[in-house]
Amino acid sequence: MPIIDRSIPADVKFREWLQSIDRDRDGRVSEQELREALRALGRRWTGWKAARAMKHADLNRDSFIDGDAEIGELMSYAANWGIVVTRDGVMKTR
Question: EF-hand domain location, by residue (predicted)?
Answer without folding.
Answer: 9-44
